[in-house]
Amino acid sequence: MIKSEMANYGKNKPIWITEMGYPTHTSGVNETRRAELLVRVYVSLLAKGMEKIFWYRLIDEQDSNSYPDDKEHHFGILDCTTAQPKSSYYTYKNLATILEGYQLASIYNAGDDCKAILFNNTEGKEILVLWTYGEEIDGNGNIVNGFEKNLNIGINGSIDSVTDIYLNSY
């Protein structure tokens, strides 16, 4: 919407998203859910033409364990007291590594319960990022009743690998 509005005025400026994140405080999302949402949001924003996306807080503010209910202390992808990476750190790193050198190629209409976005690079390689919706979510945004879905998509050519957000190959 913003890109099309700028185009109406003959402008084409880069759009940066700053301070994007999900806190893991007591009433926030759990770490696993945050990692999933991180991929969904980053890929969706890239597909909408956002040039830069910045995660809000590299490291938790102060000792997050001492402030379990304060969301401001729980945005980090590194633990404040140990500087150890959380699972969302690895998801962030994996996503950046996998999509390095790739650009948006296509957004597929994969149905109401699925998002499918194709990226390609100058060597002709392609990466299809997809996920399904429809899981039961609690008030904090965490999945409380997940289920498997069968998804039929047509792919021309062969599939070299299938990798999840944790770099597990299938």
Chain-wise SSE layout:
Layout: H1 2-8, E1 16-20, H2 31-47, E2 52-55, H3 87-99, E3 103-108, E4 114-120, E5 126-132, E6 136-137, E7 143-145
Parallel strand pairs: 1-2
Antiparallel strand pairs: 3-4, 4-5, 6-7
Helix pairs in contact: 2-3
Class inferred from helices and paired strands:
alpha+beta
- Please bin the fraction of helical residues: 10-25%
Mean pLDDT, all residues: 84
Multimerization status: single chain
Shape: globular
Number of helices: 3
Which radius of gyration do the C-alpha atoms yield? 18 Å
Structural features, described:
The protein is of the alpha+beta class. It contains 3 helices and 7 strands, in the order αβαβαβββββ. It has helices spanning 2-8, 31-47, 87-99, and strands spanning 16-20, 52-55, 103-108, 114-120, 126-132, 136-137, 143-145. It has a 3-stranded antiparallel beta sheet with strand order 3-4-5, with helices on one face. Helix 2 runs parallel beside helix 3. The mean pLDDT is 84.
Characteristic terms for this protein:
single chain, 170 residues, alpha+beta, 3-stranded antiparallel β-sheet, two-stranded parallel sheet, 3 helices, 7 strands
Provide a brief overview of the structure.
The chain has 170 residues and is an alpha+beta fold.
